[in-house]
Amino acid sequence: MEEKILQIIEEIINPKLLEHDGWIEFDKIVDNKLCIKFRGACSGCGANQATLDDIIKPEILNGVEEITDVLIADYVSEELIDLARSILGGKK
């Protein structure tokens, strides 16, 4: 399943988004829901929800029957938190 998702992202979705200097990355799958991250110009773009609804969801949901939804990952990774802590001297 993950391989099929990555293929759709790399061959169908990202070429469209790269026309606007952005792309998406696979984050994880939780309870048959795909979490993705917007990157490049897509990161923080006001059209993220429209891009998700009009481009990303249809491609993924039609191409991978096990996936029931596609969500935007909107959390801060532990790696980034650890980096911030190291910069701030380990303060929490």
From TrEMBL:
GO terms for biological process: iron-sulfur cluster assembly. Gene3D superfamilies: Fe-S cluster assembly (FSCA). One of its GO terms (molecular function) is iron ion binding. Residues 6-70 form the NIF system FeS cluster assembly NifU C-terminal domain. Pfam families: NifU. SUPFAM superfamilies: Fe-S cluster assembly (FSCA) domain-like. May be involved in the formation or repair of [Fe-S] clusters present in iron-sulfur proteins. This is Fe-S cluster biogenesis protein NfuA, 4Fe-4S-binding domain.
